[in-house]
Automatic annotation (TrEMBL):
Family: Belongs to the cytochrome P450 family.
Keywords: Heme, Iron, Metal-binding, Monooxygenase, Oxidoreductase
CDD domains assigned: CYP142-like (cd11033)
Protein name as annotated: Cytochrome P450
Protein origin, superkingdom: Bacteria
Classification via Gene3D superfamilies: Cytochrome P450 (1.10.630.10)
Source species of the chain: Qipengyuania algicida
Amino acid sequence: MATIAPEKPEFRTEPKAYEALVAHLAEHPEEQWQHPHPYDTSRSDIYYEDRWGPIFAEMRAKGPLHYVDESPVGPYWNVVSHKAIGHVEALPELFSSSWEYGGITILDRLDDEQLVEMGRERFELPMFIAMDRPKHTGQRRTVAPKFTPSAMGDMEKEIRARTGELLDSLPRGETFDWVDKVSIELTTGMLAILFDFPWEDRRLLTFWSDWAGDTELAMVRSLDEQRQGILREMAQYFQMLWMQRAQDEGGTDLISMMIHSPAMNQMDPQEFMGNLVLLIVGGNDTTRNTMSGIIHAMDKFPDQRKLFEEKPELIPNAVQECIRYQTPLAHMRRTATEDIELFGEQIRKGDKLVLWYLSANRDAEVFENPDKLDIARENARRHLSFGYGIHRCVGARLAELQLRVLLEEMHKRRMRVHVAGDVERVRANFVHGFRKLEVEITDF
C-alpha cells in the first residue's frame, strides 16, 4: 500500500446514495424503463413496490430458466428455481463468478469501445467473491478465521451487551425509524468492531456501503465519477488504517489479517478497494435488511409474532426462516465459460445467468406455503440467502448470531414492535430491504 500523510483528511458524508439516484431519475425520466420485457426482473420498481413475487412465481411455474433478450442491462438468463440455482452454484468452473467476465451483479462491465466513447478509464473492483479458484480460495481463507464457531463464541458477549444497551435506549410511546435506530446502528457497529474502525466515524461505513452496494446507482453513468470518488475516499481512509496496523504484529481485526496474509498483502489499490466493498456491503446491507425484515414480517404475520413470544426456543429456527423470507440479497450473477445445455435450454459461452435467490426461497417445490412466514418451518435452513457452494457467504455465522441475539434480547425485554408509520423499501435489484420502517414498541 502506498504511504499517505499521517493527518486524517475530511471525508464527505453527503450526498446520500439514494438521494443522488432519486434526484437523477427526476431530472432524466427518459432513463427509466418504459416498455420492459415481462420477465425483466432487473428493473428496480418491482422491488420498491413489492410486486416481484407474482412475476417470479409465473416463471417458476413455466420452468427453471427464462431468457430476457433485451433490457437496460443487456440480455440475460433468469435462473429462478431452487434446484437450478444450486446446480449452477455447484459448477463454478462452468459458471464463473470472475469480475473479468462481469462479476456477481446483473450489471455488465463496459467494454473498451464504450470507455473510449465516454472518455473514461476502466474502474474495476476485484474482490474474492468475484474471483474463481485458485485466487478466490487464498483470499477467502485469509478472512475466514474471523467467522469460525469459536470466533463467534468470543464475540457473542460483546454483541449481546451492545444489542441490549441499544434496545434499552429505544423510545416508548412514540414512533421512530427502526432502520436507522436499530438495524443500521447494530450492523455498522459490528463492522466497526471487525475492522477495529474508529468508533466516532462508524457511520462512514454506512455511507460507503450505500454508494458501493447500489447496482441501480452504478447504472447511472453520469454519477460514475462521483461514485468512484467516494469509493476512493473509502480506500484512502482504510489505507490510513493499513499503515497504522502494519506496525502491529498482533492485530486480529480484518485489516491486520489482510496485512499478514500472503494471499492479500500485495493487493493493488483497486483490489483492496473491491475487497473492502465486499466486506462492508456483505457485513452491513445483508444483516441490516434482515433486522428490518424480521420486524416487518412479524407485524404482517401476527400469529408468528405470538408464537415467537410464547416459544422462545424457536428463535434459532426463526432466524433461518426470517433470512429465507426476507432474502437480503436478491441475486448473484454467473457467466457461462462454455456452451452447455442446462435444464433443456442451450446456454452459450459468455451468456449471463442471474441466480435469483429471492425466487428460490419462495419455491413451493421446496418450501410449503412459501409466501408465509413460518418460524417453526422444518426446512427453513434450506434457504439460499447465503448462496451455495464455494461462494457461500463467509460471514453467515456472524449474521445468524447477530439476528439470534437481537430476537433473544427483544424477548427478554418482552418487546413487541408494531409497524406504525411509513414503510419505504430499497429501490434496487441487488440489495433487498427497507430504507425506512417506522415503528412503535409495546410490551407483551
